Amino acid sequence: MIAEYKHLAEMGAKLVELRVDWILRPVNLKRILAKRFCPVVLTCRRERDGGKWARTEQDRMILLRSAIVEGVDYVDLEDDIATLIPRYGKTKRIISYHNFRETPENLREIHDRLSKMDPDIVKIATMAHSPHDNLRMLRMVRESKTPTIGLCMGEVGTPTRVLCGKFGAPFTFATFHAERMLAPGQLTFKQMLEMYRYDSINDSTEVYGVIADPVAHSLSPHVHNAGFAAMKMNKVYLPFRVSREDLPSFLANCRELGIKGLSVTIPHKESVLRYLSKTDEVSQRIQAVNTIDFSGATAIGSNTDYQAVIQSILPLFGDKAKRRPLEGVRYLMLGAGGVARATVYALDSLGARAVITSRTLARSDELANQFGGEVVPWEERHEVKCDLVVNGTPVGMHPNVNETPFDKRYLRGTMVVFDAVYNPEQTLLVKQAREQGCRVITGVDMFVTQAALQFKIFSGQQPPLEQMRQEVIRAIGPARY
Ligand code: NAP
To answer: pTM value?
Structure first.
């Protein structure tokens, strides 16, 4: 604990919570507190409050009182013992309430009760089941007279850990290390500092994010926060886990959360159209939105996947001077889902002819009926003569990195191969295509391009492309290649 305390202070932590309940041997407070590397909060949680303290309550009270006598900067006292341990010396009191089951309806009442227990800071941490729980928690933080830290636990609650700073909390909580998660949905100290730049969050910070379910795997927070940091913008981008049922209420509450823009992904790309009164022509035609701009009076939906396909393919292919630069190009579209819709619509507008193939024939037929193109059964895909192969299936995606949707024996050096899968970037299809001498567009190329187009919508400025790309590559990590 001493080593980690020292390490965190060296990394720039201004306050470190010492969770002495994690020490299984008798706690030697004098030794732990002998050298103050930075101010500390001393906390000793019982099992019922999510801690590891298994010894007697009397021993715990003695420990907390001794910590106060030792002059720790803050002591954390749960609401049921706060009145039993009086204020003494300079030690500040954090009066805390935890609820691992839910975010109760009577948050305000709980706060009022805790405020009467002589707190310097009130801390309330509850389990979030919907984004509305986050909003109620943050409202409470904003409206409180006593400095208040209000956090929601769980993946749904993660944004509150960053946003509480914008709403007025004196500080937030993060873990020392990803493997030392002390509460579900917690972020690491490094993520808080480097990805979310918590230190620079204030009431004027503009909020952006991605809505998805699940959302933890999303690379969008990496890429957009890297862009905002490179451009020194007072903006933060968060992962919002929003279920289908919660989508309408989440959208209705976006402005109160300070949200100026959103990326939209699975499963909301299609359903979100219903809740937007304004969407651009492309999104209407594809019936899919991946970007919402809240900067004006009306939220506007648009689709940068479509533009990203065009921007990725055009430089490698065709004569840009022509009105329909891909006229005469025949391509094989593997898959008939979201990426395929954006691709077929985009390439159709450039004049290319699609041959669509997917596991589910009916989905290929539907796509061809809507945007044009031939359909071949999945089993016959290798017989199609084409200039371009586009993979719009997840085949080859982590962890199934030894799979490819297109057998290498049918790859020709004259082909362009475009694989939408971005994790890993070097999929088996990409590797084999390069071996055959094909020109290649990777999923990372497309991902960064669509994010860069969103960045332009969100900030009105040219995106720092290289930093965004490097961050995606770093986030995917070499281990997955
Ligand atoms: P989607 O809407 O779910 O569509 C997936 C398509 O792949 C469907 O046609 C599906 O066929 C087919 N498929 C699924 N598993 C298959 C398998 N084992 N064998 C053959 N076909 C299979 O997904 P999406 O949003 O289009 O995404 C597709 C891929 O692109 C994913 O890997 C995603 O991560 C990636 N992506 C990349 C970007 C980027 O910017 N680079 C953006 C979005 C998505 P059925 O109908 O038979 O299930």
So the answer is: 0.93
